[in-house]
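Follow-up to my post from last week.
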Amino acid sequence: MTTLDVPTRQGTATPDRPPPSPAAPSSAAPRPPARPRRTRSLTGEDVLALVGSIAASFSLVVIGYGHILDFSGILGFLVCWYVTFIALYVVVLAISLPRAIVVERVVTAMLYMAAAIVLFALGTTIVYTIGQGWRALDHLNFFTKDMSAVAPSAPLSQGGIYHAIVGTVVEVGIAVAVSVPLGLGTAVFMTEVGGRGSQLVRTVVEAMTALPEILAGLFVYAVLIVEFGMAKSGIAVAIAMAVTMTPIVARAGEVALRVVPGGLRDACGALGASHWKTVWKVVLPTAGPGLVTAVILAIARGIGETAVVLICANASNFLTYEPIGKPMNSLPLFIYTMYITHEPNAIVRAFGAASVLLFMVLALFVVARLLVRERKVR
Amino acid sequence: MAMTEESTTTARGAAFPRTAPGALEAVGISAWFSGTLVLTDVSLSVAPASVTALIGPSGCGKSTFLRILNRMHESIPGAQMAGEVYLDGKEIYASGYRITHARKQIGMVFQKPNPFPAMSIAENVTAGFALTSTKLSRSAREEVVETSLRQAHLWDEVKERLTRPGGALSGGQQQRLCIARALAVKPRVLLMDEPCSALDPTSTRRVEETIAELSPQLTIVIVTHNMQQAARVSHNTAFFLAEQGTPGGIVEQGPTRQIFNDPSDPRTADYVGGRFG
Amino acid sequence: MTITAHPEVVPRQLTTTHAASDRIFHGAARTVGLFVLCMTGAIGVFLGYQSIPTLRHYGLHFFTQTQWQPELDHIGIAAVLVGTVEVALVALVVGFPFAFMVALFVSDYAPKRAKSWLVSAIDLMAAVPSIIYGLWGFYLLMPRATEVARWLSEYLSFIPIFKVNTDAHAAVWQQSRYTSSVFIAGLTVSMMTIPLACAVMRGVFDQAPAGEREAAMALGGTRWGGARMVVFPFAKGGIIGGTMLALGRALGETAAVLIIVSPDFTIKDRILEAGAQTTSALIAGNFGDATRSQLSALLTAGFVLFLITIIVNSAAAVVIRRSRSGALTEI
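User reply:
Got it. Predicted complex:
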């Protein structure tokens, strides 16, 4: 059996290194501390292939677009550029690389572009909404006044969406106050108490998350408004919202509770704690951020529920804080009623209200993210 | 070395095809995980067709070092390395050297057997070809499957059920399947990361027999916790140690007989004597 | 010494006496669960119950009649159901490739530091209210998408669904013939299906067993090779389940469709042409003027929609649960 042969390195001029001595490495002359090296490096050739394909396909399409094939419009241009780029890139890579690597590179390029497209679509949604609504957002009265005695086509210095904001906050507030205890209570029932009923409840809850919101609205309309003569008001909307939100909170809450390790519950039991104490003092706090995230997501969903307000509410121009008996406007409803008029100023107002709606959802999201990060730090 | 029961030639009478075993040299290897230095200035020369054992207590960087040898270390988020690794004189971390090419020549068997459960036994063996889009004719495929399974001492046990799923085997059989899968692509070097730690003694014995038979045509580096195993299978041994709070490194390396019977460093003597670890 | 069984030994019957607070706790939880069960069940029952007066009044023609003319009391949901399915299918066909590719990108290909931002961006996309997408679709997308529709109708008209009843080659083409179509509504709804399917798929891709992934890498496979060999077989359940969940959402989408389509009560087999209708848009548009029996009819239409979405969602749940990725999926 050979001992430590030292193979010579091809192509280098360094002398053979002596066989390593059995002594500890620290007895050698001290080396400067090592620094990490970059292992994922693109060669010049890789970069050239990519950039070259992009540039070449761009030029090709610019020249040929509109002439060779009867295209028009910017979307078509982008699609043509994409297809040409992929074709060129495949050809360039296949010249020198094995098939598996060509596939890998092309797939990587396509995935990056898919992500870019989707993010771009999201970006244009946000930017366009805020951009179109900016002229309305620029006026302070937009946030402080309602639309009483102001026509939709009136100039933007008049009127505002304060009543709609209030309406959304009141309606969602009531819906949350109803659906969160019910949803969390159901979640606790499903995970902690269990029993024969829990599987039935779970199945029904799962089925109800499939309920389109318009049907919740229609249900409230048909039963409460038509049958029982309740007025189209904030409370009607809130009830319909609660119907949609409760199953969501229940299911997300169940997931958050299920993730709590069983070992914690065992430890509490071994200490002699009652079930209630275990849940209240250990399980719920441990699942806390997950539960709050579930509630926040349900709120974000409720804020944007348009179908419900279309059916259960009257688009009033007047500010009211009373959910019962009086017609109450809300942001999605306001947006829709403005849109329907097709008046230029009304459309700007609609986008302005949409921007406010976006900000609300964004704010909720930031809060949810902060909570998650706080949990990770803990 | 005891003779094994399985024949060393395939049904078609071909002997195990010979590939030139590779020479591996690591120079000045250091490793970081998320900014923390875990290995410092490790150098090791591995001669072709030899079996080198890396021993030492847990947590001193043996597996990390092994993963640097086939460029698996960098796939962990936050992992960094320094130093060079030469396979037959070519530096595998050089910018022009394709990472998949390095891994094809330096195979690896993991501690926990990981056959692909969605594939049959035969498909598992040829998975390396499917992954690199290498086409095999039907007869070549059958040849590869039989050769590799014979090399891994698994052929007789599974030859009747090559189309059954790869997950439906015992732990020892799964690990030998993973060995066959790694051998099928004919690597120059085989790295084994504690391959027997999850196996029963009979499977362990089979795997060690495989190592002994493969040794003339394959360079093997094996990380093991089991000192007796290192003494049984390896020609050379390197002893890793990470003293409290410091990054790991090689304390002593040399022929196995010397490390175990006449070590130079007192820490090596303590470890192989069972006084710690 | 052998161990012999003693036949006369039987297990003890144990009784658990809970603390008083626990009895209250269990009772309260049970009550809440029961209440939610009844409330949600009542809705389903109520909606189903409406089908009785509807069928009594309109008969089975309700399901075959395409027109919706309340003044003449000729109403039926045939066109509407077809339109609902068409819009949802367009949203799926456009959305699935993107959802899949973005999920794979975020899971395997994106730089690690960007990953949590990307996940948040996808979740944000799912949370944006649908009316905002409706406005975006109407004002920003539609003028540009009609050009694409025109090209499709011009060059791919041998495929029947792409035909449009106008001259696509004319020098001045009629843009209005391409607006407010199933195609554009489907594109807008895809903005809502993409993040939903993507989130489920990404969650499942992330949980593919690391050991198998490492084995694929160690054999010299590329990232794509490893994805094909390890991640996709593992994630089949999540992929299908996520897609079906997105389908369920697309079927029930209201606001965006309402803004984009111009109601047309024929069974449309040409998706690029102007005019379409879906169940939810129908309900939203017609509930105000509905008579008693027409209201029942709307409720029945809603109930049919509800049944379809329940079936789709339940099938998704079953597929997910049965698969390898099932136990780990949190949907």
